[in-house]
Amino acid sequence: MRRPTDKKRHPVHDEIRAPVTYLPEYLHEEPLRVLRALWACRKKPGFTRALRRFFSDLPHDLSRNRFRRFGQAAVLAHEWPVDAEWLHVHFIHTPASVAAYTHLITGTPWTISAHAKDIWTSNDRDLAAKLQSARWAVTCTAGGFQHLQNLSGARQNVHLSYHGLDLTRFPHFDGPRLARDGSDAVDPVRILSVGRAVKKKGIDILLRALASLPEAIHWRFTHIGGGDELAALKKLADELGIADRIVWTGAMDQKQVLENYRQADLFALACRITSDGDRDGLPNVLVEAASQALTCISTNISGIPEFFVSGENGLLTEPENPAAFAEALRATITDPQLRQRLGAAAENRVRTAFDHRTSVAELKALFETEWEKTP
C-alpha cells in the first residue's frame, strides 16, 4: 500500500487489525530495501519474464514511474509472505502495473478492482495486457465495465459490481428537514458539496452557477474537503462576489460529514471529464447524500445516470454548463416539496439497490469461484 496523506481518519480505518506493509513510495527513499529485493528476485524463476515485460513496456512509457513500478514489484515479490496465495489490487493503473510484474516474478495469481480515473487515464494497450494477465477484473460502473470488456480477450472475466454503502454507518435520518425556500436572508437554503478540490469535481462550475442565481434567492454553500485547487477556488469565489456566503471546512471524518448531510437542504456536485480523460465513476458522496434523503444535483456523465434518473430521484445537467446547473439549483432551492420528493426517492434507491452487503456477496462469490480453480 501507499502511505496515507490524509490527516483525517474514518471509523472503519480504526477497525483494521491486519498488519499493513507500505511499499517504498519512491525508490531513492529506501535504496537498500530496493537493491536487496532486486538481488534476491534475480534467483526467482519468473524474474527474467518480468524483465522482458518491463523492457517491452518501456517504449510505450519511458518514465520514472515505470522504473518505480518495477522496483516496487521487486520489493513486493521479495517480501511476499510464504503462505500468501493470492494478490488482489485496487486500481488498474499504477497498482496493477506493480501487481502484474509481481505476478510474473512469483507466479502468484492476481485479480483487479478497477474504478474510474485509473481506467480512463490509462492507454488501451496497457489495460488489455493487464486484463489478459489477471484472473478477473471487477469495476463499479456500467461504462467502465463495457470499456474493459471491449478490451479483454475473455469478456466473461470482467465483472460489474456497484460499490454499496454500509447502511449501518448511514442510517435513516428521522430528524426534521426544514422547508427553506430561499426567501429568508436570515435562514438561507443550505447547499453542500463534499469532495477533493480537483478539476474533475467541477467546483468552479458550481461556483459560477451559484453566482448567477437571482439576488432574491438566499443561500449558503459549504464545501468539505481539501485539494490542490482550494486556493484557486477561494480566489474565484472572491472574484464572483460570493465569498461571504461560502464556508470551506477542509477535510472532515465520516461522522462529521454525516452530520453535515443531515443539516443541508441539497447536495451539489458538478462533475466533468477533464482533458486527460479523468472523471469520477459514481461518486460515493452522492450515494451517501442520497442515503439521508438529501436532494442531489449533478451531471449526466460516467456512472451518475446509473443511479439518478433526472426528475425522479435527483436532477442532472450537462457538464460544463453553469447556466443549466444554476437552473437546477433555482428549481430545488425554491421548492421544498420537490426536494422532499426527490430526496425520498433517492434514499429508497440507496436502501433497495446499493446496500454494501450485496457488493460484498458478489466479490466473495468471485473469489470463491476462482479459488476453486486454483490447484
**Largest β-sheet summary:** 6 strands, parallel
Number of strands: 10
**What is the CA–CA distance across the termini?**
28 Å
**What is the fold named in CATH at topology level of the largest domain?**
Rossmann fold
The helix-strand sequence is HHHEHEHHEHEEHEHEHEHEHEHHH
Number of helices: 15
- The total tally of domains equals 2
Describe the structure.
The protein has about 375 residues and is α/β, with parallel strands linked by helices. It has helices spanning about 30-40, 45-55, 65-80, 95-105, 115-120, 125-135, 140-150, 205-210, 230-240, 255-265, 285-290, 305, 320-335, 335-355, 355-375; strands at about 85-90, 110-115, 135-140, 160, 190-195, 220-225, 245-250, 265-270, 295-300, 315. It folds into 2 domains: about 15-165 and about 355-375, 3-Layer(aba) Sandwich (Rossmann fold); about 190-355, Rossmann fold (3-Layer(aba) Sandwich), CATH 3.40.50.2000. It is built from 15 helices and 10 strands. The strands form 2 sheets. Strands 7-6-5-8-9-10 form a 6-stranded parallel β-sheet, sandwiched between helices. The chain has a 4-stranded parallel β-sheet with strand order 1-2-3-4. α7 (about 140-150) links the parallel β3 and β4. The radius of gyration is 23 Å and the shape is elongated.
